[in-house]
TrEMBL record:
SUPFAM superfamilies: Phosphoglycerate mutase-like (SSF53254)
Name assigned to this protein: Phosphoglycerate mutase
Top-level taxon of origin: Bacteria
Pfam families: His_Phos_1
Length: 189
């Protein structure tokens, strides 16, 4: 598919904190915690852009707390990484129960010992979403995993570099693209 011409400007916003992010647990479809809701309500995001959102409750609540109007149905390509049977467990719990499986997952982007999505699959899904972005400004409320995948794609980095990117709750990342090429930027204060 040939990418649309013109400049696409994306502001990727990670959802606010949840109980799972505080516990360092693999997330399910949980709501924002009180601290995340308060922090999102105090955060400002520039207006004048089309707003898209992942379907998970924490993303929809973040968009609402930011005062953004979601322009369309939730985009399945922006969905959280599928952690399979590890959903709800902390990293420490998985490491204690399945150390070899966790090690394989962290070193092989094509591995899915949890029965969910592979990192390679996530990177492909996010790359497909980026390919659909036309000219203009878009704000996307999504997950740290999706933002990490977008950064890896924009940099043309190898899949294993996915694990070298951290994205905190309410972090903002800008991508500017034209003709299928993306530049990573910093949105500033």
């Amino acid at each position: 598919m040939r990418p649309p011409s013109g400049v696409a400007r994306l502001l990727l916003v990670c959802h606010a904190s949840t109980r799972a992010t505080v516990r360092a647990a693999f997330p399910a479809d949980e709501p924002l915690d009180e601290a995340g809701l308060r922090r999102a309500a105090r955060t400002r995001v520039p207006g004048g852009a089309v707003t898209v959102c992942a379907a998970e409750r924490r993303c929809v609540q973040t968009a609402e707390a930011l005062g953004l109007r979601i322009e369309s149905a939730p985009d399945p390509l922006l969905a959280e990484y599928d952690y399979g049977r590890w959903r709800g467990l902390t990293l420490g719990e998985v490491e204690a129960a399945e150390p070899e499986a966790l090690a394989a997952w962290l070193t092989d982007p094509a591995a899915a010992p949890h029965g969910g999505e592979t990192v390679v699959g996530l990177l492909g899904r996010v790359s497909a979403w980026l390919a659909t972005r036309g000219p203009g400004r878009t704000v996307a409320i999504t997950h740290s995993s999706v933002i990490r995948a977008a950064i890896v794609h924009a940099l043309g980095a190898p899949a294993l570099s996915f694990w070298r990117v951290d994205v905190a709750p309410l972090a903002r990342v800008t991508l500017t693209g034209r003709g299928g090429r993306w530049r990573l930027g910093y949105p500033g204060p």
